[in-house]
């Protein structure tokens, strides 16, 4: 076994010869496109969508390469290779994103082919991580491990990945298209704010089917998705997806990029959209698009459970510091004696989602030792080791601590989502990373964070809402007001089953004042909370007024 | 304008006819408005008839005329505007149209393979185009992961080798 061989039991989709051949052909195609661009056969305008569909963005200071991590699943060999790429061709860091991908922010154009080759060595690529096509499908970071799971969403996420790869009809859509799928009743994928959100479930006979929502999204027009159908049988899954995409590709707006997402079409057509999808679905030659149970079984074999040992649940060691970390980071597993562990990429004062090459290597090692070599990327920009023996948790914690990865703040106020903002992004109207850093420093005391309890703060550096501020308990949006960065605050958003768009609380705060404003919100919550209430619960019970009064009361 | 079929240039016998202009003797492509207005007299002609389908028009709208049409020309106003892909697929799949489907407008060689997989026959390309670029682009990726038009069999495996001509 060499460094590039995935560990035996890591359940990532394993490429076969055809998949590898495809990847090599795709790299050859991109190399040809670069050559034609350099020879002047392609204009920059023509080249742009082609490079975007290979993950290459032009940012404020450099190119950025966005690498696909299919539905957030990695094996240790892949993570180690990402570390190597970060060290060799970036500045020693990679940035994990809310779409469960990784970005290299300091890419040189001439290095891209070599980076793509290095990715291909571990069956990875940057295909369709940008552009107006079907993007990386996201799913539950606890897939295959969570006690509440009804259907393993990885199987269908992989089927969607294959189906959408270079789809001949849906590669030149009006706008990008993002699908999220979950197989647990508790929605951990924000299904209702995606272009298509899928809830995989079972009927009374145990058969798999899908509840399909469409037309959700954030950006400048946040919208909760519309439910199209309660039940699409497994065999018809791809047919139904085709029908949704066909209606969108034919009718989605193309003259205004702010109105081109499917959410606008669904909002404008309402039930008529659902009817159009149904009509298309009814008249399709469905045999042709039928998802054969044999294919499902063949894909499912890639995600078979690893060889779990027969264990009993264990009490945790008494070490208080370890206990504090475990309380935040350790989650119940469906197998007795096992747990899932979330690794925080949010050190106090750090850049949310950043990991150094050394940290990636350390996590790869720890995953091999403790989690069958498997790692997940979460949509809150953290990592997960899905299958850890409870008896190994203390040793794992020490290993993480040595790598600077044991901040016990998962789900707490410093577990912030922040977009790149003005530090990297050409579209930004304000900084967002430094706001995250300052809030995290203000609440640096972990005892205090644990006392405050679950609270999600999300920050975007412009109206495009990459930081998901609309669906945060406390959302922060940086805007430009006559040349000054100011920050609007929204309260009460949620990205889970009770999906909601946060409410704007009042006039914006200056760069200097915004952290104080967050602190005021928190002290108001503490003053009003009833026993066991989280920030969002108190907010829902008492409403916006007490928070407003506290923020805008005359001094 | 040069015409591409099977990755090679070939002569074009068709003429695009302006709405006010008299019809030529040979094969003619007319606008949708003219097709509608002059359906009866156009049907009486002895030469093949084609129509230009605008990007915003759903193929259903020309369904009544399909048995009289030998060619449908779809248009991509910009290479990023992919509505034609769905029109072409619908013409083949829903309407069983077996004549020539021609793509015109701003099209990149990189889109050729996908157009073919949706069911296109010919592409109008700019003067001076190198057909080799189109042929190479078509042949670069020989693997497809999903069902499409053309020589496809029902989806028996999620992936298969492309069997394009
Ligand atoms: C710096 C480079 C980036 C640029 C230029 C950029 C640009 C954009 C734009 C223009 C939109 C709005 C699209 C629309 O509404 O149609 C958007 C949305 C979005 N971006 Fe980014 N983005 C960047 C980085 C990121 C990063 C780093 C993340 C993840 C951390 C991200 C995740 C998202 C998400 C989740 C949306 C969502 C909203 C939705 O899907 O409705 N983006 N981005
Ligand atoms: S929200 Fe705006 S500033 Fe932030 S990454 Fe997206 S486009 Fe850039």
SSE topology:
The complex is a heterodimer of chains A (555) and B (165).
Chain A: H1 17-38, H2 44-52, E1 56-58, E2 63-67, E3 73-75, H3 76-89, E4 93-96, E5 102-107, H4 112-121, E6 138-139, H5 153-164, E7 179-182, E8 196-202, E9 208-214, E10 226-233, H6 237-251, H7 262-269, H8 271-283, H9 286-289, H10 293-300, H11 320-329, E11 330-332, E12 338-343, E13 354-356, H12 357-370, E14 374-377, E15 383-389, H13 393-402, E16 417-418, H14 433-442, H15 446-452, E17 457-460, E18 474-481, E19 484-491, E20 503-504, E21 509-510, H16 514-528, H17 535-542, H18 545-552
Parallel strand pairs in A: 6-7, 7-8, 16-17, 17-18
Antiparallel strand pairs in A: 1-2, 2-5, 3-14, 4-5, 4-13, 8-9, 9-10, 11-12, 12-15, 14-15, 18-19, 19-20, 19-21
Helix pairs in contact in A: 1-2, 1-4, 3-12, 6-8, 14-16, 16-17, 16-18
Chain B: E1 3-5, E2 8-10, E3 15-16, E4 28-31, H1 32-37, H2 39-43, E5 49-53, E6 71-76, H3 83-93, E7 100-105, H4 112-118, E8 122-124, H5 131-140, E9 143-144, E10 160-161
Parallel strand pairs in B: 3-4, 4-5, 5-6, 6-7, 7-8
Antiparallel strand pairs in B: 1-2, 1-8, 9-10
The complex binds protoporphyrin IX containing FE and iron/sulfur cluster (SF4).
Iron/sulfur cluster binds at residues 419-421, 425, 427-428, 460-462, 464-467 of chain A.
């Amino acid at each position: 076994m060499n460094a590039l061989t995935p560990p035996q039991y890591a359940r990532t989709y394993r490429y076969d010869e055809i998949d590898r051949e495809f990847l090599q052909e795709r790299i050859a195609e991109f190399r040809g496109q670069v050559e034609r661009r350099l020879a002047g056969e392609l204009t920059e305008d023509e080249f742009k969508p082609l490079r975007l569909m290979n993950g290459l963005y032009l940012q404020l200071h450099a190119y950025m390469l966005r690498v696909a991590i299919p539905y957030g699943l990695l094996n240790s060999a892949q993570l180690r290779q990402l570390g190597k790429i970060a060290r060799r061709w970036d500045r020693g860091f990679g940035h994990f994103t809310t779409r469960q991908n990784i970005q290299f922010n300091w890419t040189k154009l001439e290095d891209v082919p070599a980076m793509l080759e290095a990715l291909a060595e571990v069956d990875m690529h940057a295909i369709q991580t940008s552009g107006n096509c079907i993007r990386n499908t996201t799913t539950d970071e606890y897939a295959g491990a969570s006690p509440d799971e009804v259907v393993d969403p990885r199987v269908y996420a992989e089927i969607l990945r294959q189906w959408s790869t270079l789809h001949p009809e849906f590669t030149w859509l009006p706008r990008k298209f993002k699908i999220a799928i979950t197989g647990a009743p508790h929605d951990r994928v924000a299904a209702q704010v995606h272009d298509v959100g899928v809830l995989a479930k079972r009927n009374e006979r145990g058969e798999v089917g899908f509840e399909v929502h469409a037309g959700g999204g954030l950006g400048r027009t946040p919208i909760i998705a519309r439910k199209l159908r309660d039940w699409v049988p497994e065999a018809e899954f791809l047919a139904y997806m085709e029908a949704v995409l066909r209606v969108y590709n034919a009718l989605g707006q193309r003259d205004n990029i702010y109105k081109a997402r499917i959410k606008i079409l669904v909002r404008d057509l309402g039930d008529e959209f659902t009817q159009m999808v149904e009509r298309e679905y009814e008249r399709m030659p469905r045999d042709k698009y039928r998802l054969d149970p044999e294919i499902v079984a063949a894909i499912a074999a890639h995600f078979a459970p690893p060889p779990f040992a027969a264990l009993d649940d264990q009490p945790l060691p008494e070490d208080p510091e370890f206990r504090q970390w475990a309380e935040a980071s350790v989650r119940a597993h469906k197998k007795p004696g096992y747990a899932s562990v979330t690794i925080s990429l949010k050190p106090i004062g750090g850049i949310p989602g950043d990991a150094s090459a050394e940290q990636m290597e350390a996590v790869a090692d720890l995953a091999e030792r403790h989690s069958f070599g498997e790692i997940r990327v979460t949509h809150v920009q953290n990592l997960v080791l899905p299958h850890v023996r409870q008896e190994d948790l203390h040793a794992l914690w020490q290993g993480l601590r040595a790598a600077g990865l044991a901040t016990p703040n998962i789900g707490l106020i410093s577990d912030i989502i922040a977009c790149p903002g003005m530090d990297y992004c050409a579209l930004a109207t304000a900084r967002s990373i430094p706001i995250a850093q300052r809030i995290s420093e203000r609440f640096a005391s972990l005892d205090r964070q644990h006392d405050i309890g679950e609270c999600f703060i999300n920050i975007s550096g412009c109206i495009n809402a990459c930081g998901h501020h609309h669906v945060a308990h406390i959302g922060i949006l940086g805007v430009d007001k006559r040349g000054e960065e100011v920050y609007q605050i929204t309260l009460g958003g949620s990205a889970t089953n009770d999906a909601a768009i946060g409410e704007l609380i009042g006039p914006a705060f200056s760069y200097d004042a915004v952290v104080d404003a967050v602190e005021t919100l928190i002290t108001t919550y503490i003053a009003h909370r009833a026993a066991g209430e989280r920030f969002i619960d108190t907010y829902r019970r008492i409403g916006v007024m007490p928070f407003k009064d506290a923020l805008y009361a005359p001094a | 304008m040069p015409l591409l079929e099977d990755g090679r240039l070939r002569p074009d016998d068709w003429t695009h006819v302006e709405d006010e202009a008299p019809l030529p003797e040979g094969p003619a492509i007319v606008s949708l408005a003219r097709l509608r207005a002059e359906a009866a007299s156009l049907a009486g002609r002895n030469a093949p008839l084609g129509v230009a389908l605008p990007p915003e028009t759903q193929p259903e709208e020309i369904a009544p005329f399909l048995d009289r049409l030998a060619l449908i020309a779809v248009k991509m106003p910009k290479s990023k505007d992919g509505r034609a892909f769905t029109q072409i697929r619908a013409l083949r799949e829903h309407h069983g149209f077996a004549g020539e489907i021609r793509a015109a407008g701003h099209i990149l060689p990189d889109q050729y393979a996908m157009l073919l997989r949706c069911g296109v026959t010919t592409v109008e390309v700019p003067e001076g185009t190198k057909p080799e670029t189109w042929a190479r682009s078509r042949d670069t990726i020989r693997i497809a992961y999903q069902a499409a038009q053309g020589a496809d069999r029902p989806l028996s495996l999620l992936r298969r080798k492309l069997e394009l001509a």
